[in-house]
Amino acid sequence: MFQRFFGFVYLSAVSQLVNLTGTQAECPVQLNPQRAVVRYGGSVAVNCSSSVPHKGMGWEASEGAVPMTGDSLITWRVSNLIEWDIEPFCYINHEKQCQVELPVTIYKTPDSVSISIVNHRGPMIEGKQYELQCDVHDVAPVQNLTVKWYKGQTLLNQTTFIDASKTPVNETTTLLIRPDRADDGAQYRCEAELELGAEGPQPPPKETSGRLNVELNYKPKHLNSTETIIKNDEVTLNCTVKANPAPMYTWHSEHLKEEISFSVLQASTVLLSPGNYTCTATNSLGSDSKVFIIKSTGSRPTFWTVLIFFQLLVALIIVLYDLCDFSLPISTIFIKMKTNLLWFLGLYIIGIVSGDSCSLEISPSRIVVKFGDPVSVSCVASRPVRVLGWESVIAASHTQNDLSVQWRVDSLTDWIEEPICYGVFFTAPRQCEEKLNLVLYKKPDSVSISLVNHSSPVEEGREYHLQCEVQNVAPVQYLVLRWYRGKTEVYNHSFSELSPATPVQVSSTLLIVPNRADNGAQYRCEAELQLGAEGPQPPPTVQSDVLSIAVQYPPDFRSPEEEILDISEDSEMVLDCTAEGNPPPVYIWTSSNLQEQADNQAVLRAASLGPGVYTCTASNILGKKSKQFVIKHKSKGESNKTH
Fold first, then answer.
1. Is 22 left (phi over 0), alpha (psi -120 to 50) or beta?
2. Which CATH number is 554-641 given?
């Protein structure tokens, strides 16, 4: 297995086959180049040469035919190639006449490539699903076409086509999106690229649509539902929030005597007394409120001030006591004074360091919750606190009496939730916060696998795309999509580069080139959410159904070489022409010695088969192959010699 660009995978080696009436190994001519790729209306020239004596060779074609000649190098040449179905071949009269067909690919780049939103005009709304459509007009050949979808410079998806039409066609492909507010102003485009192989133009010709700019409407959403502020001379309440259309603001508080429609309140323009101030931002899609809690500063001694003062007082008393103990030598008194001072200095430093840390601990620090399940998290302060609480869109809470506070939700269904534990302390730092690492997840509604633009069976040696679609999964950055052939994992696709927290639809594509050994192979894909050590173990997974691949391939003999059989007179002859093919091949026998037609028999059994050449041809809808049997009879003398 070899990985190919953007996560596509080759599952088998591909042999470059030329569709020949007889292969070049059997027919002594060489084509240069062996395959022609020509732009519609362009010129083409291909040489046919031979290094063996012959009775004449030439080119047969509906355009540019070359009459039979005795030359050993002839050129098929067309200056304006416009015949889509042209099938030129070079023939030679050597021991017998044979011919080699030239594969010709005539291509035409699209007249236009356009992008649009299906059944919608105007701004999109956050969280709703929309379908983008890419229309490619007048392109050929469609089986070499790849349509790629881009958001900015990021490749989102690509589609290939299996239609065998050689003439220009119109094609349409679609992409489902569910935009969030980060997509406001995003630019989508689609690109039609003709991948014509090594003989085609490099880089491959491509046409790009115009850019589709996404204008997104979304309701206001504050990052935090509450904010606590310690009052000073420069208090500012900033309620500004991003929304489209732009929101209107209203303020409510028992301390406000007039209506205010600004997004920001400043103490320099409005008297802001301690208390609660509720700001509501509203647009046509909804509203969201935030509560500002202003607390006054007090002049009473803090806990650590009292503790440090008490430490110094005790130290002073002990020092004075030691000085008054005249029974002790002076050196002993100084040693005791030094020890006591160092001990209290250590307590003082501990008090200072303790006052400088935030001292908030969330338990557990990271939590993984299934959509709709309950959740409970505690926040503990390790030093005295004025106010301890949780800022949250739902279940916000606070306490002024305890050193711990719980954030508890009976059924968590808010995808944007980012709870923050905050503390307002007596000493510096007076206010700090710790954010809870919360992962809200949802298993996919469904996982499906299909062949892109094709239904089984497939043909050996051609490229096909399998697509795995995952519906409504979150968060997608933890998703790993695994591809299996039977029980063997052949590829996995992660989506760590994506960031939306809400459920999305994603897909992955696998490129396969099946051979006859793949007939009956079973493919499936599996979506796995790898949520870390705090998540469920084993990780939650959802599997697709199994997709069985039926592969059709032309007949091939187990032993294709000519068989020469020496048979004694009157002995029974068995000619085994069995070939493997799908659909099962039909057999035709030809020989001047056959008295009656042997239709659709893989094996001839007869005692009356005379000396000569017997040709068996096995054929199905994909091709045919012949094998020769040469029968030679031994004379009685030769037969006796063998005994």
1. beta
2. 2.60.40.10
